[in-house]
Design brief:
The chain has about 110 residues and is mostly helical. Helices cover about 65% and strands about 0% of the residues. Helix 2 crosses helix 3.
């Protein structure tokens, strides 16, 4: 899972992936794979990253466990507007159907 917090803080501090890799004594492709979530970042590396960027670990840390990242870490998820429109139309259809069924029940009682 891509490390958006890390990437954002790194960029805002003016660090390139190359510069981060050098500070961590690894090649840029290894660093890139960590930031992109292909390779797990160890606890030691999280501490080192926080030191390099001069931030707390909480400002950059994102778990590799998708459960932790779903709602618990203030992540923002975007749903395409067209999908929301489809859902709204479906909800309206269901509401009309419910109303018609209620009217039918009232007549039968």
């Amino acid at each position: 899972m891509k490390k958006f917090k890390l990437s954002t803080v790194r960029s805002s501090k003016g660090f390139t992936q190359q510069k981060m890799a050098e500070r961590l004594f690894m090649d840029v492709s290894n660093y890139s794979r960590r930031e992109n979530g292909t390779i797990k970042i160890s606890n030691y590396e999280w501490k080192k990253l926080a030191e390099i960027l001069d931030v707390s670990i909480n400002e950059i840390y994102e778990s590799d466990d998708s459960k932790d990242n779903y709602l618990g870490n203030n992540n923002i998820y975007f749903v395409p507007e067209y999908f929301l429109d489809i859902q709204r139309k479906y909800i309206n259809t269901l509401e009309k159907e419910i109303e018609n069924l209620r009217k039918k029940l009232e007549k039968d009682i």
